[in-house]
Amino acid sequence: MKKKSGKHAPARKPKVGTNEVDEYLARVSEPARTTLKTVRAAIRSVAPPEAIEGISYGIPTFKYKGMLAAYAAFSDHCSLFPGAGPTVEFKNELKNFQTSKGTIRFAPDKPIPVTLLKKLVQARIAENERKKGR
Q1: Whole-prediction pTM value?
Q2: Would you say 91 and 50 are in contact if contact means Cβ atoms under 8 Å apart?
């Protein structure tokens, strides 16, 4: 493995699976495509640099010390899959969305606010770090 030179090498998001995610999003119709691109950008903005993006179980997924978050478009809604912990932790802020264990459903034209989405992902990051620290 090659060592990085320089004091402060820029952190980069891995491109693992990026083409597959781009292909998935290209097949999604509007307005869901734009909504999912926003979801993707929000997750990327808070995910650690070593997070890996790809397709898992046929949908876009970020992994960091385990599953971080996944998202998908369906015929009449979109879903975010941040895991059960964040879904329960933010249940009051999610009261306007249909939720079940680890899943948040929303209309493509009424997405989860980006600030809340980032909080959900940050909670999942903390959860994964606690689990892997054992």
Answers
A1: 0.84
A2: no
Q: What is the CATH number of the domain that holds 55?
A: 3.90.1150.200
Per the structure, the count of domains in the chain is 1
In a domain? residue 48: yes
pLDDT of residue 11: 42
In a domain, residue 2? The reply is: no
User: Long-range contacts: 100-108, Cβ < 8 Å, 24+?
Assistant: 103/79, 104/79, 104/80, 105/77, 105/78, 105/79, 106/77, 106/78, 106/79, 106/80, 107/77, 107/78, 108/31, 108/32, 108/35, 108/73, 108/77, 108/78
Residue 1 lies in a domain: no
Are 11 and 49 in contact by the 8 Å Cβ rule? The answer is: yes
pLDDT tens for each residue of 69-122: 999 999 999 999 999 999 999 999 999 999 999 999 999 999 999 999 999 999
81: its two tokens: 């899959």
